[in-house]
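Section 3.1: Structural characterization of target chains.
Under the original work plan, the team committed to producing a structural model for every single-chain target entering the pipeline before any wet-lab resources were allocated. The record below documents one such target. The sequence was received from the expression subgroup and is listed exactly as submitted; it comprises 476 residues.
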Amino acid sequence: MPGSRIAVGLPRPLRNRSRCGTREQILGRLAVFALAFVASTAAIPGRAADPFLRRTATVRVAEKVGPAVVNITTERLQESPSPFPSHRQPDIGPLSDDFFEHFFEPGERRTRSLGSGVIFDRNGHVLTNEHVVARADRVRVATSDGREFDAELVGADPHNDLAVLRILTDESLPFVPPGDSSDLMVGEPVIAIGNPFGFSNSVTTGVLSAVDRSVNAQGSFAFHGLLQTDAAINPGNSGGPLLNAEGELIGINAAIFGGAEGIGFAIPIEVARRVIRELLLYGEVHPVWLGLEFQDLDPALRDVMALPRGVGGALINRLHPDSPASRAGIRRGDLVASLDGRTIRDAGQLFEMLEGMTPGQKRIFELYREGRFRKAAVLAEELPQSVVDSIASRKLGVDLSLSTKTGSFEITAVAPDSAASKLGLRPGDRLLRMNGVTLASREDLRRAVARLRSSARALIVVQRGPGRYHLTLPLI
């Protein structure tokens, strides 16, 4: 109609001049918005946006450290038995077992497993978990750029679940040196890189949930002092690096908590640095000692010591003279209430916490003596060869001498009324193995004796004449 206004194609709010302004003002604002939208979308193909919006700390760490993370594939050869019984069954006719065995002979079967690792020096050494490479017959590593190499085992430490490999190549490889885990802050961001379920160089993020955690692993080992994180860690991440927001290597991912989500554990790099040094020098972590032995508290001991309610731990019942513990001021009869700030429940827990010690490691003991608590700093030392014989004699009840003719240890004396005497051991017997260690050198004996400190019995192999006998020897 002449003289009337018609708003064609405009939404209802545009018809209300008092609320939105004139039609020309509104159209002008729409035009500005459209230009801004076009300008923003035009920047997408070239990715020329402000880099600070997307280049986060995680991106920088992945770019920096990712090339040094390797995927580890291990192969193990296992005997594959015949699927048929080895003895002939009666009344089965011509299709006998012997007939099938001509076609199905026992052979070898290859089993493969995956893990992760990180190159930590310019010589191509890789840090990973011991359980990743345990019992492997062949180890292969693959870098993020697709190169693959064979690797050899330099050494492994099952007590700390760490191993060092060497990549067999002269090519230049990226690496990230070990960082520092002594100043970690609970809640700080962390980054994990690894090979979960075979998906190579996967990056996950989270925070450091806690420090100084204790975890019981499968088998007889317990690990202490672990880092807890909620960064996703899955099978295949084992051995991969845990990094802080600056890209420093602060831990080695080791385990996930069964049945839980967002709970993973890593070995602090401070532990790994000590183990790396030993493995590169010797191929193993040398046995260490503090020079003390301890036992559980029973009700009778508690009464004699008049311990207050709530005070417990492990009682030191033997102290070697001129040992690290005695030089630190520890006395026989002291009660170990805590170690490195962790409360001690019993002797078994204290054994576990001392099991993974390395030479030069400082341990802080909190002791209860004569109604007062006091602290002592003890520096772990290599187990002296001069002490090995006395420990073996006292714990086993026998004196041993290394024979250059037989390359084994001969029993030269047996303590009267000892467990060894009751088992029938006598001078002239040869001690061939102890707790899985073949005894062919003084160093073998030192390693075997170091394992006796946390055991109530020893599994030994003794030879007398042509016969060999497997015995369980209770320890004194």
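The first strand starts at residue 69 and ends at 80.
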